[in-house]
Amino acid sequence: MKPTDIKDPEYFHKVVDCQHACPAHTPVPEYIRLIAAERYTDAYMINWQSNVFPGILGRTCDRPCEPACRRGRLDADEEPVAICRLKRVAADKKDDISERLPSIPKKKNGKRIALVGAGPASLTVARDLAPLGYIIDIYDNQFAGGGMMRSQIPSFRLPIDVLDEEVNYILDMGINATFDIEVDSLREVLDKGYDAVFIGTGAPRGKGLNLPGLEDAAGHVHLGIDWLSSVAFEHTEKIEPRVLVLGGGNTAMDCCRTSKRLGGDDVRVVVRSPFEDMKASPWEKEDAMHEGIPIYNNHVPKELVVEDGKLKGMHFEKVEAQYDESGKRSLVPTDEPLVFMEADTVLMAIGQENSFPWIERDLGIEFDKWDMPVVNDQTFQSTNQKIFFGGDAAFGPENVITAVAHGHQAAVSIDLYCRGESVADRPAPGVTLASQKMGVHEWSYDNSVEIDKRYVVPLAPLKETLADRKIEVELGFDATTGYKEAERCLNCDIQTVFEEVRCIECDACVDICPTDCISFIANQEEEHLRVALTAPASNLAQDLYVSEELPTKRVMVKDENVCLHCGLCAERCPTSAWDMQKFLYNVSKAGQL
Amino acid sequence: MSYQIPKFRHPQLPVNDLGYTKADYEGSISTLCAGCGHDSIAGSIVKACHELSIEPHKIAKLSGIGCSSKSPTYFLGKSHGFNSVHGRMPSVVTGAAMANRNLTYLGVSGDGDTASIGMGQFAHVARRNLNMVYIVMNNGCYGLTKGQDSATADEGSVSKKGDANIYSAIDLCATALQMGATFVARGFSGDKEQLVPLIKAAVSHRGFALIDVVSPCVTFNNNPGSTKSYEFVRDHAEATGTVDFVPMRKEITTDYMPGFSHEVTMHDGSSIHLYKMDENLDPFDRTSALISMEKHRASGDILTGLIYMDKDSRDLHDVMETSRRPLNTLAEEDLCPGNQMLKNINASLR
Ligand SMILES: Cc1cc2nc3c(=O)[nH]c(=O)nc-3n(C[C@H](O)[C@H](O)[C@H](O)COP(=O)(O)OP(=O)(O)OC[C@H]3O[C@@H](n4cnc5c(N)ncnc54)[C@H](O)[C@@H]3O)c2cc1C
Ligand SMILES: Cc1ncc(C[n+]2csc(CCOP(=O)(O)OP(=O)(O)O)c2C)c(N)n1
Ligand code: SF4
Ligand code: SF4
Ligand code: SF4
Ligand code: SF4
Ligand SMILES: [Mg+2]
């Protein structure tokens, strides 16, 4: 193998598994250390710079970082660090941050940007561009900002005051927000002479099932996302006792849990797929079941049963999942009699889609065969140079953190575009690598590896939360538990940096390494090296760190996979050929060039 | 400074026949200097014992005094241990081995512990062919007491203090051979590939097995001019050949060039494969071994690998015809067989 180029910022970035997996690349271990040091405000600001909504995300993030967390790979019964819920600790315990927010220039730079939609994607664009002096106009058809974070995510998961606080940090940056306005023509927006337009209108249309009986039952069948927003906006306050929720995603979980709080007493989730294949996150399913909501899997909806003009229930066909050689699933009927379930109301939560009836098709924006705009996935520019898309509007429904990541990149592009520069020349990430050595065997980070199991977030009593849809279910970690959970983090950003010329090949690092990461071995092709190392390097998603050739004609090879970042190699190295160095990687934001 | 090794191990560590991983053979975190050769030898001992699938409680590790003699704390944490008096490890092992022949005895010593204060004990335990492995972690100095030249320091070798040693060196392999040792090998802490099979073969050998392991003292004797530094040893080591240890049930997979290779079956049924690089050495012949060692000494090279092995070794238990059972398993009826037996014995002496 060729020697590893550690100057390439992506090499060490990949070692910080959580940060790498986070769409916004939040410097996770850096803020976790600050939480352990009780520097909550600092921890919050690191998050705020990177993901804009720490309090919201600390409660609702889809947390792609957690399945990636190294801790979960160490042992069969190890679970990831509770990265998401630690973010909430920072948000809950921070002091006033108003002093730390960017200052907004009184004198504007003369460029006017329109943002359509006020969801997390647009708000992120606003956050990044307002401090640079851009004049920002936001248009949204809801009565307040936040997009689906307001209309869809129920208050028992995300209290309104948390949402308002973080949305207002942005709207207070001198943004001109117009609410309760439906934008029905993009041409009209363009005609107002904006220098650029960002479209962050999400994926607002719920999908339905055209089942027999639908017409007769219409008043008792709702699209999940429409129903949730009518609850959020207090148009709906009650539901009938027997509720069937169709679908297996997070929307279905929010629908059933909300129903339970509005008078639903026999609430069931019915899903076509097997339980394991459901789209909902495991914790969302757990939460629903914890609230006494059964999930019926392998049931395909067949018809709505209406008698005397009244909805009685539904028929379902039982199926079984079969997988072909390529792993493709088909749901095969078991030929049992149809299953009947009683219902007064049916909520269809089977998905959302984009819809752009208000975008004229002669504005130079190309649409593909699925009627989605053609958008560059690095620059977020459409085929009309002036118009950018981001969030769910760009590539279909995702989540808040993805919308934020898009927003940052779109802001970079809009800034480049407005300054007449090429949007393709993306700014490099800001990277620093600094030794953590404080003394012979002293490090400026806590290098001991704690053995605690993942801590569970305490919940409010079920009786209370089921009685009021606005009572938050999760209580969050207290300071002590937050500290202990923070201590579980392995500090994967503290990198093991190897300097060949210092190494005397004494093997001390090989001998001490608890997880057998290090080998001194004859160089060979990667596939051969991976099986020849001190311990097999079978996780192909993790790189091998290969040195230049050493005096004995061997190379040092380190498998990054299960390195604990414990620093023992560096402590036991007599010549400091290993050093522990903190790698900070910051995605460059608009204006940071 | 870390005082503990993290609990986590590589999730795919191989398990041996007993279901144990290497971690089950480790000890506490080392307090030796970072980079000390002794730690690497400890690592090789862990690897060898794991691969041999010896139950940890069937091993006794005994030592004298010195950095080397401290090192048993850092391996085989679940085995029996006895940190004895300077130079007196052999007599403690002798006592233990006589009392319980069912354990694997691993004596760990330093060049000071062996070649100076313990020289007499070393000579006699070799001569008696006690069934043990005797590992000398040889750094040419008294590391623990700040690096004074030891009796194995080569004449002219310079330690960190800067003075060349004026005395001639004791070669422990040659001494052991002359004293009657039945297995003699030399290794280098920095070459695990060679050392691990040597340790395994030594464990399987019945009788006194010496492994003299050159083990640089990074703090006091790893400077230019020292003949026991990492660099010097790497440049001057010359191997007798390669040793491949083949456990009893494993098939032999490597092809060896005919003429140069020997297969030796050990007492416990395992075998070792010796692939010779030095055509003139016959490792089953004491005279040949002595000549080869002397030649290498004269040319300034360090001969490593298996130097001598007596395939027909009879250990101290064999020659003394001791009890086949450990003394602690002998019951009263074994020890006091009764009046009739006494009469028989007396009669046989009349
Ligand atoms: C039930 C449900 C629960 C969810 N839970 C989570 C969760 O827990 N965690 C998570 O990360 N994600 C969750 N999501 C997904 C998440 O809400 C979205 O991915 C995210 O909000 C998308 O952000 P966005 O900025 O692209 O658009 P949106 O948040 O959808 O915002 C778009 C805004 O534009 C407005 N708009 C649309 N068209 C027009 C128009 N023509 N004129 C004016 N205004 C318009 C919309 O009303 C909306 O206010 C959930 C989604 C649903 C449906
Ligand atoms: C009876 C006695 N005499 C002297 C000493 C002092 N002493 C301690 S260790 C040592 C030499 C150790 O040298 P070596 O065996 O080579 O071990 P190393 O530290 O080099 O590994 C000496 C002389 C002692 N502890 N006991
Ligand atoms: S252990 Fe910490 S730094 Fe490493 S992946 Fe998990 S959260 Fe990130
Ligand atoms: S920091 Fe060093 S010793 Fe610790 S696990 Fe990683 S490579 Fe091994
Ligand atoms: S401990 Fe240091 S000098 Fe020794 S092999 Fe490792 S990197 Fe090289
Ligand atoms: S003094 Fe020498 S022998 Fe003792 S621990 Fe340090 S390096 Fe090893
Ligand atoms: Mg010594």
Automatic annotation (TrEMBL), chain B:
Keywords: Oxidoreductase. Transmembrane segments: none annotated. It comes from the Bacteria. Residues 65-213 form the Thiamine pyrophosphate enzyme TPP-binding domain. PANTHER family: 2-OXOGLUTARATE OXIDOREDUCTASE SUBUNIT KORB-RELATED, BLR6744 PROTEIN. This is 2-oxoacid:ferredoxin oxidoreductase subunit beta. It comes from Candidatus Seongchinamella marina.
